[in-house]
Specification:
Layout: E1 2-3, E2 7-8, H1 9-25, H2 30-39, H3 47-62, H4 87-97, E3 109-114, H5 124-130, E4 133-136, H6 143-154, E5 160-165, H7 170-185, E6 192-197, H8 200-205, E7 211-212, H9 220-227, E8 230-231, H10 239-251, H11 256-281, H12 287-300, H13 302-309, H14 314-324, H15 330-333
Parallel strand pairs: 3-4, 3-5, 5-6
Antiparallel strand pairs: 1-2, 7-8
């Protein structure tokens, strides 16, 4: 039976179930949503069901039942040049884009590495909030990538912790250990790697749809001996749980006092940037030579500039008083 608009009642019910999940856990990829619907026993675990979920979510977004930003898709990146309408547009971008590196003041360095690029869409906002670097392997990491990481890590003179998220299968487990060894082998220096997801225990805890281990995988026998014959993709873990684990792990490595100090410094710096951009944006061509002279005065007389800039400076108060005094006429001066 079909409802108004030619939609089958079963389709409507499935869309409703998907929207309930998305309302709680967005943003999600189609694959993450597919696994959550399987866990709730709304669809079987097969290719036809995945394609069905993709179709109904296209329909529900186009008819405005589902907000477009609830579904994440990083499989089609856009490569655009950084261009601006004019210099003022550029100045506004600089003003709005500034963000201090809070981790520069922290006693540790923390990163998140993931096996799949598709998963980034559901954790990107969280990692941006904490200023955390996300590195994506897309399976086994290339030699170039592993060596590049080692070079970066070798220059960081503080403890390093990497939180790793990957599939629970023979290759997924091996990718993590193999990458760790390779980066160390390229003289990165010591660092810790902690696996946050996904694990054998998650299958039962979150009622995830397990898959049989692929027998053709050369690492299958060792994996089965250690973990059993069930594997599961990282995408199957509820996004809210993945985000919770990352947030909890990152916070455990943050010095709250230093974090608050960095926030205060950033606020002050943003204020100065705002003032500079406002002054620059309002300048006319006639103002430019005088602005250059002003900058020269500032650069050539740092002590004088410091006195002028500090509102509580006694030198500033004295200088201001002196500038406000009337200039004596020639007769008085004589």
């Amino acid at each position: 039976m079909r409802i108004a608009g030619g939609e089958n009642r079963k389709t409507t019910a499935l869309i409703g179930a998907a929207l309930d999940i998305l309302a709680e856990q967005n943003p999600m990829t189609i694959r993450q949503l597919f696994y959550r619907l399987i866990s709730k026993q709304r669809i079987p675990n097969n290719l036809a069901s995945y394609q069905l979920v993709s179709r109904i979510m296209t329909k529900s977004r186009e008819d405005a039942r589902c907000p477009f930003d609830w579904i994440a898709d990083r499989s089609r990146p856009v490569y655009a040049a950084a261009v601006f309408d004019d210099a003022v547009d550029y100045a506004d971008t600089v003003r709005d884009a500034y963000r201090r590196n809070y981790w520069a003041m922290q006693p540790e360095h923390v990163e998140v590495w993931v096996e799949k690029d598709a998963i980034v869409g559901s954790i990107e906002d969280l990692c941006k909030k904490f200023g955390i670097t996300i590195r994506v392997g897309r399976g086994y990491w290339s030699t170039t990538a592993a060596h590049g990481i080692a070079e970066i890590f070798s220059s960081i003179k503080k403890p390093i912790t990497v939180f790793y998220c990957g599939d629970h299968d023979p290759s997924g487990q091996n990718i993590q250990s193999e990458l760790y060894s390779r980066v160390l082998g390229y003289q990165s220096g010591d660092f810790e790697m902690e696996r946050l997801a996904i694990s054998k225990e998650d299958i039962t805890k979150f009622d995830l749809p397990p898959l049989p281990v692929k027998s053709r995988d050369s690492r299958a026998s060792g994996f089965i001996k250690r973990y059993g014959n069930e594997c599961v993709e990282l995408d199957a873990l509820p996004p809210v749980e993945l985000r919770r684990r990352i947030e909890e792990a990152v916070k455990s490595h943050i010095d709250d006092e230093l974090w608050a100090k960095a926030e205060d410094i950033e606020k002050q710096e943003k204020g100065r940037i705002q003032d500079a951009v406002n002054q620059w944006s309002s300048m006319t061509d006639e103002d430019a030579p005088r602005w250059a002279e002003f900058q020269s005065l500032r650069d050539d007389n740092p002590l004088l500039w410091a006195a002028i800039s500090d509102p509580d400076s006694e030198d500033r108060k004295s200088l201001t008083k002196h500038l406000l005094e009337p200039i004596p006429n020639a007769g008085e001066a004589a």
